[in-house]
Amino acid sequence: MPRSSRLIATTLALSGAALPAVAQDADRPHLNFYGVTGLIDMPTGETQPDGRLSTTVSYFGGLSRTTLSFQVAPRISASFRYSGFQDLDYEGFDDYFDRSFDLTFQLLKESAYLPALKVGFQDFAGTGVSAAEYVAATKTFGPDVKVTAGVGWGRFGSANSFGSPFGERDPLDVEQGGEPNVDQFFRGPAAPFAGISWQATDDLTLMAEYSSDAYDLERGQARLPSSQVIERRSSVNLGLAYRWSENVDLGAYYLYGSELGVRVSFSADPQNPPLLGSRGPAPTPVQPRPQRSAAPEAYDTAWTTSAEAVPALLVATREQLEPQGIRVQSLAAEAEVAEIRIRNQRYDAEAQAIGRTARALTRTMPASVETFRIVPVVNGIPASAVVLRRSDVEALETAPDGADQLLAVTGLQDAGRASSVAVRNDELLPRFTWNLGPYVSESYFDPESPVRAEIGAKLSASYEAAPGLVFSGAVSKSVVGNIDEADPDTDTQLPAVRTDSVRYAREGDPSIDRLQAAYYFDAGPSLYGRVTAGYLEKMFGGVSTELLWKPVDSRLGLGAELNYVKKRDYDGGFGFRDYDVATGHVSAYYDIGAGYHAQLDVGRYLAGDYGATIALDREFNNGWSVGAFATFTDVSAEEFGEGSFDKGIRVSIPFSWFLGEPTRNTSSTTIRPIQRDGGARLSVSGRLYDQVRDYHRGELAGQWGRVWR
User: Fold this and answer.
1) Parallel, antiparallel, or unpaired for β 449-466 and 431-446?
2) Integer Cα distance of 43 and 451 in angstroms
């Protein structure tokens, strides 16, 4: 599946700024200055709609906050925040930047008599500069008024405290940051906060709150060295929020009796695309066979004795499918069974490709053929076999619940090897493709420049010489950007496998990003294999091997990867440096259900460290994916350096979601607070799990509703 990292496309998808609102949701809670569900600076007991992803940018005084928040589940939300403190003389920086993570859990949904009740952990795994815990309750009175009351600790317990009910809190100790501050939770002074909001119109909300945050650090009152960033003359904040569209929310505020503030939030609901329906061409209708009693001659199987029959059927089927973006690899047809192997090049909903193939077969196969065995092929690997009865396809096309009924009688099997009598499409391979286009590369959280970017041109090409044998490469040339202007990170106690990325950007322009040969193969029942050799990524080259066990109807997949790689020269050419390493992992993949996928990788990383990476992603049937990962190895926090361990957030958005047209292209980005050498993994393309599982039961069933589209 083609994938590209496009920050611009992701931002457009989140903002929807050029798109009209689909449906105003006046009851959806606003986001506050911290980018979480709240009033102005304080949280509330409410949550966002399930699955909603939001980016909030806010500013007041000398403070700026940029927050990415995701409603992981109906009662659980998570946030990543990047805060800037202008002219704050702290930790040796004139302007200090801080990264933090939040988690909230809603204990009660609002009911007729009970309020919505939520517990939150702010900056629970960061430096602790913004650390706070709280319990907040919100109750609706009448159609337009909401009242919130809560108790906070940490930052939210610093103004007008009523004591420390659960013991004292240790002084702030930043160290490397990044580790959970469990021993601080709900310790130290506690203080009340409260607020009220009035929805004056469908779009405008007025609000007031009493804040329990003293802003000691920003006012120069903390025990740590600092300077004054804001003034705080009052605990009362006033403001208004205006919902400009379904995806864009604005706010303006008067804070702490001295400061004016502004906020803008961009949101997207993966389950609510900006364009309803599909702009793609309609499928060809099913062509039912005549009744056997009315036309028995149509069911004659004499055609099976002709050597020209199957090649002619192949040509006819290609004429049906290739204009729809589905290429036919081979066709085997007997009296009652036909097996077709296809390559889906257009539809991100794989069930849609299966449905269109089945429709085409009803138009091209002789009437005697009752069973369709459709085998999707990915990079030469047969991913599965979807088995349909032709009579079911004919009967259920226009049924009110035809998709569900068809799924109930559809078989899913291991694909196995192609039939020895299958007729191959000789025009499919060898196949050469190329693309010349722009690329965007991003670098986040450099203390001197929080966001760096590079725009350039990339030439990529691929040559598939035989089924599964693919030669590919990419060359890039920067046109404009400032990634190479960052100071190289030389403060590392490990082999520099990622911290010298600035040198690769600076000296490797133009560069050979990738130049490799890959062989993908069917290794046996439910087994898939890959061998890749060459310049595997911008920083490493060598050999990568992988074996995956993944039955088509199982939630569980197990894999093993072994690599031997050497570090490439900084100039992005053909040379290597004097560092090599054997690295690899054993992996477990599990479909938890309800769209949640877990992955565990255990093994050796590029710097020679041993450990494990755990990841959890929420995937939606339309291709959206939002997830987080963390890596823990035998490298200590002190050896790792700033951040303590590798962790990050990844977001993938299908282009079809905001274009309304079928395409397999996606916009993907990974946000790391900081990437260092510990826990660094080889970035090799073509890993097997994400390629083959699209055609296994869990994924196909989730988007089977599009089988007739």
Assistant:
1) antiparallel
2) 28
Strands 596-604 and 610-619 turn out to be: antiparallel
Residue 647 Cα distances to 102, 634, 651, angstroms: 14, 15, 14
pTM: 0.91
Q: How far is Cα 260 from Cα 239, in angstroms, rounded to an integer?
A: 10
Predicted local distance difference test score (pLDDT) of residue 16:
44
- Strand 381-382 versus strand 385-389 pairing type: unpaired
Sign of the alpha-carbon torsion through 387, 392, 394, 399: negative
The pLDDT value recorded for residue 174 is: 57
How does pLDDT run across 39-81, given as a tens digit for each residue? 999 999 999 999 999 999 999 988 999 999 999 999 999 999 9
Per-residue confidence (pLDDT) for residue 93, from 0 to 100: 57
Token pair 């009752």: residue: 370
| DSSP H or E stretch at residue 683 | none
Residue 23 phi, psi (nearest 5): -160, 120
Tally Cβ neighbours within 10 Å of residue 183: 8
SS3 track for 121-186: EECCCCCCCCCEEEEEEEEEECCCEEEEEEEEEEHHHCCCCCCCCCCCCCCCCCCCCCCCCHHHCC
Partners of residue 610 on adjacent β-strands: 604
Looking only at Cα atoms, what is the longest distance across the chain? 94
Four-residue CA torsion sign, 221, 226, 232, 233:
positive
For 308-374, the three-class secondary structure string (H helix, E strand, C coil) is CHHHHHHHHHHHHHHHHCEEEEEEEECCCEEEEEEEECCCCCHHHHHHHHHHHHHHHCCCCCCEEEE
pLDDT at residue 199, rounded to an integer: 95
Distances (CA, A) of 540 to 126, 247, 516, 545: 31, 41, 12, 15
Q: Write the CA distances from 684 to 385, 533, 678, integer angstroms.
A: 28, 10, 18
Count of alpha carbons within 13 angstroms of residue 331, beta-carbon side: 27
Which residues are within 8 A (CB) of 671 and not within 5 positions of it... i.e. 6 or more apart?
68, 80, 444, 648, 649, 650, 651
Q: What is the mean pLDDT of residues 94-121?
A: 92
* Strands (DSSP E) found in 345-467: 371-378, 381-382, 385-389, 411-413, 423-424, 431-446, 449-466
| Residues 80, 67, 678, 519, CA torsion sign | positive
